[in-house]
UniProtKB/TrEMBL annotation:
Keywords: DNA damage, DNA repair. Signal peptide: none annotated. Component of the SWI5-SFR1 complex, a complex required for double-strand break repair via homologous recombination. The keyword DNA damage applies. It comes from the Eukaryota. GO terms for biological process: double-strand break repair via homologous recombination. This is DNA repair protein SWI5 homolog. The lineage of its organism: Eukaryota, Metazoa, Chordata, Craniata, Vertebrata.
Amino acid sequence: AAAFRAPIPSPKSLQPNGASEEALRGEIKELKQKDLALDQEIAQLLSEGYSLEELDKHISLLHEYNEIKDAGQMLLGKLAVIRGVTTKQLYPEYDLELSD
């Protein structure tokens, strides 16, 4: 009997060890650069008079807004399916802009 072969190659079999290690090093470098950029952005905001509490509140409100917007988009999508139209066609009915 033939040995079992997975229909999809495992990630390890796609790259030799050195290549995946190199990719991880690249990702680490990129994340360190993003971390530094975010630290600089926070320092800039603090120097402009914002407090960390304000920034945390703002981030929290943005998350809440995005969750509400996602729920609205989902409902519009379901309504569009029921009516047999595109979501875009529903926007004028609800006074929405395409950028909303």
